[in-house]
UniProtKB/TrEMBL annotation:
Keywords: Repeat, TPR repeat. This is TPR-like protein. It holds the Pfam family TPR_2. TPR repeats lie at residues 791-824. It comes from the Eukaryota. Residues 669-688, 719-745 are annotated as: Disordered. PANTHER family: TETRATRICOPEPTIDE REPEAT DOMAIN 7, ISOFORM A (PTHR23083:SF464), TETRATRICOPEPTIDE REPEAT PROTEIN, TPR (PTHR23083). Belongs to the YPP1 family.
């Protein structure tokens, strides 16, 4: 058919209008086209039928107040579709087209048949499916020759209509084949673009993935959803966001299932194998979460008074569960998860479920102050939750029903109470609050939960209750209260052991309490039981070493110390030093410090200097940034599109082939299993990890003369503190966006400073006992430079001046220590001793009595000098009691305080 130039221009513009579904222009284009091309009557009437159907569908949706949001609840078994129209509304347009079909070209007739089929499917006529089949019976779909422009969109429309018809007839497998042909066509013709093409393509890809899930073919569904996602990147930003959210919901679930089971049902092609390894799946899940959140929030408003944004709750629960599945994450990932939950709180109203997720996420991130606020809010809402639940039917609710109603289960509430007890007790040292949470949890377990199902919760609730009682006993200022608190702690741990005899934690904490009570034989039995369950638990080895030293069996304690160190993943000569966690490293370092103290006890102060420098080197490794704390987050929704362009290679049929980043869950390991970061810090590979030189402070020397500043070769070099390090700059450089430090990081910095000061004070003590006072005072200066608020620094300075006979300066040093820690037992004992030696018995008794009743209740020296006070004042019975108790404490005193082994 030869068209005039005018007809060609009109046909081109007409097809462009059809591609955009610009119905208002159709009548005029049809009139002009027929005027300049008498054989174009079929195309003109085809377009007019499209207009009639499209407008009728729009009116039907408006009449029923139907929107695409109906798709938010789609399942593989139930897929929402727009309202059907009455056949009478479009019948006239259909008859006009059927009446002129024979006057058109064969090509125009085929495309007209596709539009007639599409029109029949849009009606609610009883014979609609038969009519569709009738119109399409002589049309090859897909055609042998693929057209271009709007005709390409009509081919896709025909395939989609055919698939939807087969689907309604129950011929699901054939329908999927038709939908998959759409996917192949679109991927093979990426330059074809039009609004109508996008619309029909979305229908086909969406329904293909859902039907494959209905058939249980998870691999095929993942492929279709990936294809949907890749095409969606080319669609308008606001196009069918509700359906996108549904796709991402099902895709995330399918990917999570694949990652959880490590089993893909179906034949994975060679090209796909790299996409289903755990690292790639983890990265893809993280990205899909971000797209899911973005699309869902775009169609979600803040709830009204009688509404629950349960879809948001379900999404956040899926994200949280997937995070657990993916495993340990870096600090950036943890922060982004918290931000994700905060965003969810802006789309919900006082949701206890969101608060629960927020609480656990904040604890994981280490932001304990905010976690406490979330905990308090959650427990307040939990009370309301109980009242709400009482108005609901008594039958057991499924998890999905709880999400829809935003009602927490008693198990969830109790798990928060248990974790709250751990947070208060172990992380914040707030005994009263920790005990309250543990008691509430145990009450809930007894009243509401099945004892067998809540066995784990009951174990931890009793364990944390024991920790809380022990903490209260350690902090008690009333001596009469302390025994009962320790007894309750022991009873709690014994109850925990009764519940779970095979759990090492309760045995370990029981041993700690028995050690604090100086019941050394029982403590040794308990800690051996802990090690029998978990031989790699360094705090248990450390406690056993201290218990043996309390029995004055120093050589055996030293040999056990060696055994325990070899059990640790932080046995640095055998590993890269980063295979264990930061807390494991701190436990390892603490045991090494105790080992140095034992070496001095067994072999003398000179021998104690030998391991000092190695301890400082170990300190730099233990308190160096962990690789897991570095790197870019996988979950940053703000950067997700940038990552798609730079970090992710998108292939047909797949969203991700990840390029791993240092410090994230995709950290590259060397062939030997060591991370690149770990290799960079290992001294064995020529790293420039130097230990900083000493920087002597002047504040301590201002108290008394410091002597020569000449440096001794035997003085260990200072380890890297939180504010000074020669670690590679890439590991320590500040991020572009300054974040508020977490409570956990602040606590770790404080511990790092305290440990470094302890190392210097250990050196200072050895030098003092060797009568090398200049070296000793310089070591104390280093400790003061690191942690000036540490009372032990000033206490050791006082000991040094006392050893030199300068009692006045020593007294000033002890006073400074007491200004920092008013109940410092060793300092108070020294003060009491000085009063006794000066003949001031009343002052000595007052100081020593206060000491033995408070934190110095287990100080042998304090009881000894108190006994001497009673002896000097002729109260011989009291004197005898004190001296005997002092002897008992001395006979059971460990080489270092038992608290250094507390995990």
């Amino acid at each position: 058919m030869n068209l005039t130039p005018k007809a060609q221009v009109i046909e081109r513009d007409f097809q462009n209008a059809r591609a955009k579904a610009n119905y208002t222009t159709f009548p005029e284009f049809a009139r002009r086209y027929v005027k300049h091309n008498k054989d174009g009557v079929v195309l003109a009437n085809t377009a007019l039928l499209e207009m009639t159907v499209g407008e009728a569908e729009a009116k039907a949706r408006k009449a029923e107040n139907w929107t695409q949001s109906a798709s938010l609840d789609d399942t593989p078994e139930s897929i929402a579709r727009s309202p059907l129209v009455s056949p009478g509304i479009i019948q006239e347009a259909i008859e006009k087209l059927e009446g002129v079909l024979t006057r058109g070209t064969e090509e125009h007739q085929e495309y007209a048949a596709i539009v007639l089929a599409r029109s029949a499917l849009a009606t609610d006529a009883p014979d609609r499916l038969q009519r569709v089949a009738h119109y399409l019976q002589n049309i090859q779909l897909p055609p042998a020759r693929i057209p271009m422009g709007y005709n390409f969109a009509l081919v896709v429309c025909g395939l989609t209509v055919k698939g939807m018809t087969l689907e309604e007839e129950g011929r699901i497998t054939e329908a999927i084949v038709s939908y998959d042909n759409v996917s192949l066509l679109v991927q093979s013709n990426p330059n074809e673009r039009s609004d109508e093409l996008v619309s029909w393509t979305e229908h086909a890809l969406y329904r293909a993935g859902m039907l494959k899930l209905r058939q249980g073919d998870q691999l095929a569904a993942i492929r279709s959803f990936r294809a949907y996602h890749n095409q969606a990147q080319l669609w308008p930003g606001q196009f069918r966001l509700a359906r996108r959210a549904t796709v991402y919901r099902h895709l995330a679930a399918a990917l999570s299932s694949s990652l959880k089971t490590h089993d893909i049902q179906g034949n994975v092609t060679t090209d796909e194998q790299s996409q289903f390894v755990p690292a790639a799946l983890s990265l893809e899940i993280a990205q899909i979460h971000a797209y899911w959140e973005d699309s869902l929030y775009a169609v979600t408003a803040f709830p009204k008074a009688d509404e629950k944004n349960w879809r948001v709750l379900g999404m956040v629960e899926q994200i949280v569960e997937d995070r657990k599945l993916i495993g340990p994450s870096n600090d950036a990932d943890k922060r982004v998860l918290v931000e994700t939950i905060y965003r969810a709180s802006q789309k919900t109203f006082q949701s206890p479920r969101i608060l629960r997720f927020l609480f656990f996420a904040l604890v994981e991130m280490g932001q304990y102050d905010e976690a406490v606020l979330a905990l308090k809010s959650y427990l307040d809402l939990a009370e309301i939750n109980l009242k709400v639940k009482s108005t609901v039917a008594e039958e057991v609710l499924t998890n999905e029903q709880r999400i829809r109603l935003d009602i927490e289960s008693e198990y969830d509430i109790t798990s928060v109470m248990v974790e709250g007890s751990r947070l208060y007790g172990k992380e914040l040292g707030q005994a009263t609050e920790a005990l309250a949470c543990a008691e509430k949890a145990l009450s809930n377990i007894q009243q509401y939960l099945d004892q067998e199902e809540a066995k784990e919760l009951s174990f931890y609730a009793n364990t944390y209750r024991g920790i809380a009682y022990g903490l209260q006993a350690a902090q008690a200022q009333e001596p009469e209260a302390r025994p009962s608190l320790y007894t309750k702690a022991i009873e709690s741990f014994e109850k925990a052991i009764e519940i779970a005899p095979g759990a090492y934690e309760a045995h370990y904490y029981l041993a700690v309490q028995q050690a604090e009570m100086r019941d050394v034989p029982k403590a040794i039995v308990s800690v051996k039981q802990s090690l029998g369950v978990n031989s790699a638990h360094i705090p248990s080895w450390h406690l056993l070493v201290l218990l043996l030293s309390a029995q004055k069996d120093y050589e055996r304690a030293l040999s056990i110390c060696t055994v325990g160190l070899k059990e640790s993943d932080w046995d640095l000569p055998q590993t890269d030093g980063f295979s264990a966690s930061q807390s494991d490293g701190e436990d390892y370092l603490a045991l090494r410090i105790t080992e140095a103290a034992l070496i001095e006890q067994v072999n003398g102060a000179e021998a104690a200097l030998e391991p000092q420098e190695a301890l400082f080197v170990l300190y730099t490794k233990v308190f160096a940034p962990e690789p897991s704390s570095l790197g870019e987050s996988l979950y940053d929704i703000q950067n997700i599109r940038r990552r798609d362009q730079s970090d992710i290679e998108i292939n047909t049929g797949s969203t991700v082939v990840g390029r791993p980043r240092a410090g994230s869950i995709l950290s590259v390991r060397s062939k030997s299993g060591a991370s690149d970061i770990g290799q960079g810090l290992s001294p064995s590979n020529g790293s420039n990890l130097d230990i900083p030189k000493a920087n002597y402070a002047s504040s301590i020397t201002s108290i008394g003369s410091s002597g020569s500043k000449k440096r001794s070769k035997l003085i260990p070099a200072a380890a890297a503190s939180s504010g000074s390090s020669t670690l590679p700059k890439s590991l320590l450089s500040a991020p572009a966006a300054v974040q508020r430090p977490t409570t956990k990081s602040v606590q770790r910095t404080s511990r790092a400073n305290k440990v470094l000061a302890t190392l210097w004070l250990l050196s200072a003590s050895a030098f003092r006992r060797l009568d090398r006072m200049e070296e000793s005072i310089r070591a104390i200066e280093e400790a003061e430079h690191i942690d000036a608020s540490n009372p032990d620094v000033w206490y050791n300075l006082g000991l040094l001046y006392a050893a030199q006979g300068d009692q006045e300066t020593a007294s000033v040093s002890f006073s400074k220590a007491l200004a920092l820690a008013p109940y410092h037992p060793a300092c108070l004992t020294r003060v009491g001793q000085s009063y006794l030696e000066a003949g001031s018995l009343e002052m000595a008794e007052s100081v020593l009595d206060t000491t033995t009743k408070s934190q110095g209740w287990n100080s042998a020296e304090a009881w000894f000098y108190l006994g001497k006070v009673f002896e000097a004042s002729d109260r011989l019975v009291r004197a005898k009691e004190c001296l005997w108790y002092a002897l008992e404490l001395e006979q059971s005193r460990p080489i270092r305080d038992f608290s250094v082994a507390l995990q």
